[in-house]
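Subject line: Sequence and fold of a protein, written as structure tokens
Enclosed: The protein record, placed directly beneath this head.
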Amino acid sequence: MNFWIDKGIGGFRMDVIDLIGKDPDLEIRENGPSLHQYLKEMHGKTFGPHDLMTVGETWGLRPKLHNNTQIQDVKSYRWFFSLRPCR
């Protein structure tokens, strides 16, 4: 990511970002126990100090979870959007 930031890219869209915290041993696919830790680390080591547009696409993010203080504290994404079908 830093390579592209140094080249002057204006932002990132990360597909299925909620899967980076998965724990296969516990059969947790989305919104896993390490998700927030990984997002904070990505923010701190890459786009945190830059003025970039960032968006995370998910299948598992629910509005209740997105409003969670833990995610808001991450401040690593400007937007999240879910591709989960409406019912």
In short: The radius of gyration is 13 Å.
